[in-house]
Design brief:
With 137 residues, the chain is α+β, with helices and mostly antiparallel strands. The protein contains seven helices and four strands, in the order βααβααβααβα. α3 packs across α4. The protein is globular and about 35 Å long. Bound molecules: adenosine-5'-triphosphate and magnesium ion. Adenosine-5'-triphosphate (ATP) binds next to β4.
Length: 137
């Protein structure tokens, strides 16, 4: 069993498709072990995406991630990290495989509907960034 962090980003929350995205996870053997809707500050977004701080898109990314509510989840299941990434599709929705969340719901390379941890180590860090152990069930 693995745990990974998923975020439904502001574009998808604004489109009222939280349930459609959650269904992709539940229909593919990932359980929602924790879930909350929150609005990040720009500072929160900067801390969360700190690995990208030297990238040219960093400031826009932080503005975007703090522009509206997000839904943060812990997903649990076999190979949860890789499974979630597979269900999400590639960063750029124009290149994402048909049937993936980003191919079906993302607006652009920036407003791309979902985030998913990219390794088990980052999953642990990202889960701890948002949730206390007693909130994960
Ligand atoms: P995420 O970390 O959100 O799950 P990812 O792992 O597919 O996405 P990263 O390379 O980690 O992609 O980029 C983090 C986020 O930064 C992307 O999801 C996207 O919102 C934004 N981003 C990445 N590349 C670009 C770009 N070239 N222009 C604008 N925004 C970008
Ligand atoms: Mg990433």
């Amino acid at each position: 069993m693995e745990r990974t962090l998923s975020i439904i980003k502001p574009d998808a929350v604004a489109k009222n498709i939280i349930g459609k995205i959650v269904d992709r996870f539940e229909s593919n053997n990932l359980r929602i072990a924790a879930m909350k809707k929150i609005k990040l500050t720009k500072e929160d977004a900067g801390k969360f995406y700190e690995v990208h701080k030297e990238r040219p898109f960093f400031n826009d990314l932080c503005e975007y991630m703090s522009s509206g509510a997000v839904v943060v989840m812990v997903l649990e299941g076999n190979n949860a990290v890789a499974k979630n990434r597979e269900l999400m599709g590639t960063t750029n929705p124009k290149e994402a495989a048909p049937g993936t969340i980003r191919a079906d719901f993302a607006e652009s390379i920036e407003a791309n509907a979902v985030h998913g941890s990219d390794s088990l180590e980052n999953a642990r860090k990202e889960i701890a960034f948002f949730f206390a152990e007693r909130e994960i069930l």
